[in-house]
Amino acid sequence: MSTTRELHRRAMELFEASLVARQDGKEAAVYTFLRDALYLESAAADSVAEDHSLEPTRSVLHRSAASIALRVFDTNTARRYVEAGLKGKPPEEIREELLTLSEQIEILDAERADYKLKGPVGRTPIQKVIRRFTDNVPVDIIGLANALGLTVIETDLGINAGEIFRDIRRGGFSGYSILVNNNDPHVRKRYTVGHELGHFLRHRHRDRVENRFVNDRMYRSGHGRTVEDEANALAADLLMPRRMIARFRAEGLNSVEELAAKFDVSVQAMKRRLPFLE
């Protein structure tokens, strides 16, 4: 166990160094520290992998190795340590954290997949997460962004409504953040998050959101009308799901104002949405 402790201690020193480099914006150093930390933490986890009596140490080390692997987008290694950690008898809290990591791994794999080469069978992990969040109204759009691996940050953007960009300092497990103008009304902020999620989900593999994608208050980015229309359409799908609108209309909620309030969107947004559902 002394060797295990030493491996873990050195791994955590490197992990702490990666956090400092992350705050300084030194991307190359971040990933160097993390890869070295992963090598050591994996060795620590492997050293106790066969001894299930060493709980919670065993599952904690497996969780830690999986978490570091996810930070360097090594989903195969992350998945291996999650699965190994769950094979033991981890405490319930650690088990839940391993299951959360498992879902994040599946989401990250789905976000990086090219379904034009091979179509998915059934719903993708992303579609499952979206369905879970859009089953409740009003949709927790920030919670959805977080679940897909993006951090949402409010700040003063001047004339712009929002942007999405690669963010090694604050980004979620996808490596991206969304900025929202903190001067905008509540419903506009919600729509902006949905719009930027639209760019992330629809355009990231077109080299359009490789580093930064900025939208003004008319949701114009300079990337063409079609791109913005696609992002707007997905924002509407996320914030005002067709099936949920149909459900509330069947229950007698038909006025634009009532529906807008129910879905926590602007009256204008709901007016634009309803004709598409006829």
Give a description of the structure.
- With 278 residues, the chain is of the alpha+beta class.
- Helices cover 60% and strands 9% of the residues.
- It is built from 12 helices and 4 strands; from the N terminus they run αααααααβββαβαααα.
- The chain has a 4-stranded mixed β-sheet with strand order 1-3-2-4, covered by helices on one side.
- α8 crosses α9.
- The longest helix has 22 residues.
- It starts with a helix and ends in a 5-residue tail after the last helix.
Feature tags:
single chain, alpha+beta, elongated, 4 strands, 278 residues
Give me the secondary-structure topology.
Layout: H1 2-23, H2 27-47, H3 57-71, H4 75-87, H5 92-112, H6 125-134, H7 141-147, E1 150-155, E2 160-166, E3 176-181, H8 186-203, E4 212-216, H9 225-239, H10 242-250, H11 256-263, H12 267-273
Parallel strand pairs: 1-3
Antiparallel strand pairs: 2-3, 2-4
The geometry reads as: elongated
The count of strands amounts to: 4
Q: Main sheet?
A: 4 strands, mixed
Q: Overall mean pLDDT score?
A: 88
Give the proportion of residues in helices.
55-70%
Radius of gyration: 21 Å
What is the first-to-last residue Cα distance?
Answer: 66 Å
Tell me the structural class.
Answer: alpha+beta
Helix and strand pattern: HHHHHHHEEEHEHHHH
* Low-confidence blocks of residues: 206-213, 216-224
Biggest sheet strand line-up: 1-3-2-4
What amount of the residues lies in strands? 5-15%
Enumerate how many helices there are, as a single number.
12
